[in-house]
Request: fold
Amino acid sequence: MRDILDRLERFTNLISKWLNWVAGIGLVGMLALIVADVIGIKLFKNPIPGAIETVAFLGVVITAFAIAYTHVVRGHIQVEFFVMRLPERIKAIIASFVFLLGIILFAVLAWRSYEYGMVLQRTGEVSMTQGIPFYPFVHAVAFSCIPVCLVLLVELIKSVLKAVKR
Amino acid sequence: GEEEPTEVIELTYSNFFPPSHLHSVLVDQFCQEIEERTDGWVKITHYPGGSLTPAAGVYDGVVEGISDIGMSVLAYNMGRFPTTELVDLPHGYPSGWVASKVANDYYEKFKPDEFNDVHVLYFHAHGPGCILTVDKPVRTLEDMQGLVLRSTGVGAKIAEALGATGYAASQGEAYELMSKGVIDGSVTPPEVLKGWNQAEIVKYLTTCYDVGYTADMFVVMNKAKWESLPDKYKKVFNEVCEEWIEKHAKVWSYYDKIALDYFMTFPGREVISLSQNEMARWVAAAASVKNTYMSEKGAMGLDVEDMEEYLNDRVDYWSDRAPTAEECVEWVEAEVLPDAPQ
Amino acid sequence: MSSVTVGIIGIVILIVIFLLGMPVGFSMALVGLAGFCYLVSPQAGLSMLARDIFATLSSYSLTVIPMFIFMGAIAYASGMSRRLYDAGYVIFGQRRGGLAIATIAACAGFAAMCGSTNATAAAMGRVALPEMKRYKYDDSLATGCVAAAGSLGIMIPPSTIFIVYGILTEQSIGKLFIAGVLPGLLLATLFIAVVFFLCLRNPKLAPVGAPTTWKDKIAGFTGMIEMLALFILVIGGLFKGLFSPTQAGGVGAAGALIIGLVRRQLTWQGFLFAIKDTLRITCMVMVIVAGATVFGHFIAIAKIPLVLSDWVAGLPLPSMAIMGIIIFMYLIGGCFMDALALITLTVPIIYPLIMSLNYDPIWFGVIIVLITEMGVITPPVGVNVYVIKGIAEDVPLETIFKGIIPFLIAMIIAAIILIAVPQIATILPSFTKY
Ligand code: NA
Ligand code: NA
Reply:
């Protein structure tokens, strides 16, 4: 059981890490685009068409694809001082509850973002100046919730095991 | 036989205009009127300034039931309303009053499928768009080159056809973008000078009525909520909406007039009118926008020629019947301003 | 059950799951979702969640956050911020709390131009916090400084809050901007006084460096030239309207990258570290901002701001007492809601009351901004604090909140001074036409 769990954890962490690097490429791309646009405007009076819209869309990639890994490295802010003082078993029960809530949140977000993306795809809504479709980025948010759920699931199983351990 | 409702029907109204804007004052008056004419059985809570759903999310918010009623700009959801987009193209709209009347006629005549997911209450539309710039006056087509201008929908396409770069942002963000130098100005009706305080930072206004587009604005209601209303309240809504079209139309013409007067009370401001020759160059440069639109939508199977002809007819029809700008100002001062925040 | 009751229950549940250790952004999104589903409909609530989160993540104005953090992270990875603080220590280090005071001044300057309180806290925190730690400055002092000074940005123009307030109340935004200058300076002075008094009382908070000569100081100054030049380019560009905040951040990050490469101090490993660090902090901030948006819409639909403002407007009390209640209300409101949403919902109701009590509209705008500044550093929804926490990972949240208390007191003193001497806010705008 522990063995499978460890392997599962290594797997989910690896996926999160890879997605985080996709976000990293998005970050570097965003920087390059902004700098190229500034140079275009200031030196050649010629901004890059759609630079602003693309930067905003890259913002989605940067955050969404980093959520899972940020959780792996405990990057999301939480209030610890209350739970810290409790006995181990209570702590594990509370943690199980919190991970379960997290899974519910991100599962719902994945589902609803997918539906939202389908609405945008069906109605043909596009960005205001360059006509870039929104829906791939909304689907990206939906997709990025899956590894978050997996990471949380592994942690949920681990804390449940800790809670029932005699 | 209608049954009396057993409990008060509470509705929410999401509106992108800021609370002090006269169109928001009209929304407040709308909510009051509905409440009075339904003897208090329909109560509407008004969320102005995009405080419930952001400007670009108002329409979809109504479809999903996040708010029950919503008012925003069709162009904020580009591509979603292909048929109605035609209204926004330059058709020689002389005033916001005419544009508003035409927008409603157009919907009644063609009833586009794109609104099937809501119940349409009514439309209104602003007067001919112009070019506002912070510190780079636009006197010729060449001056447009390299400018970054806030614009949406058809306004953005015209801006690009004239040589500028469009920057999509809602009206609420424009002041900040201009004050921070992100954009050089805006393609917009003059109303924003007063209604959104932009006269403080805009120094030049270039009128270009011959390429003056409009922006159609919707007031729509969640379909299920509408269906659930008793018939007698539906009737109240229909009556009140009919009256409010006229009111919004007058407010637009009021703004067209007084915003320019207000603008000129600031020191060092200039209104630039293009010469006839120059205007002809602009019209030629912008013609591609209409042509592209007509061929694209024609290819989609829309009967664009008919629609175009109908729009031109209605513009002429309403232009002959339009109240003067002074009449609109007088009416707004008597009926709307007293309810506006002082 | 009335919607206000549901709203209050929502707030209580939020605090409970905060305390259970659920990440702050997740908690706000979840409670906001549940509350909206309950009050409106499950369909509406579920749709709102997806739309609010996408709208936040795809907001152009928020892309300023990754760019400035990236700039700070590259400066850190290539040793630039280290040299900056080494120089700062040689120059100001012998004075009590010298580095902290210099950090406040730098934050104030940066925040003034950037206008986003959380971008300031993130960018300046990324540079300042590790360095102040290196010089053994107390954790709560260092974090409190950056969190508080970051909030100065919305008082010193340009400021988004003033723009929104101006549009809501039809006041001149230009006058509001000018009105913010003196109160901004007053606040900065009070913050510096706080550091000075804290260090006077407990010198261990900020160890004083060995005495240095003028020669040392000049030699030290050369170490900070490049970083200073970069700051001048970025802040000067913002001030002159050359760049948008996002563009300025991009130019700053690219500049730091070039300096690091030219000086051969930025390694490939360092660059990768900077990327990872930027992603982690950005993600953490954006998740909190997105959660706060969802939660804010729940509070709005629960009509808490409307009901509270209506209640205050109907109170038969003397004007001073009403002003006190209004300030208190905004202070509490700021704890649970994003400042802009709170202002949009309440100002139209409160404003006519303020006018009937004969308060100056410009002065009230300044007061609103001051209270909003407090809101971004008070728990449980104090975005600046969480941003700082994300950078200073090893510092417990309660240490940061503890560090903020003296600065919060300074803000309350500033509010009292502004009430007693309203001219601080109104004198400059009275000289300007618009
Ligand atoms: Na500022
Ligand atoms: Na707060």
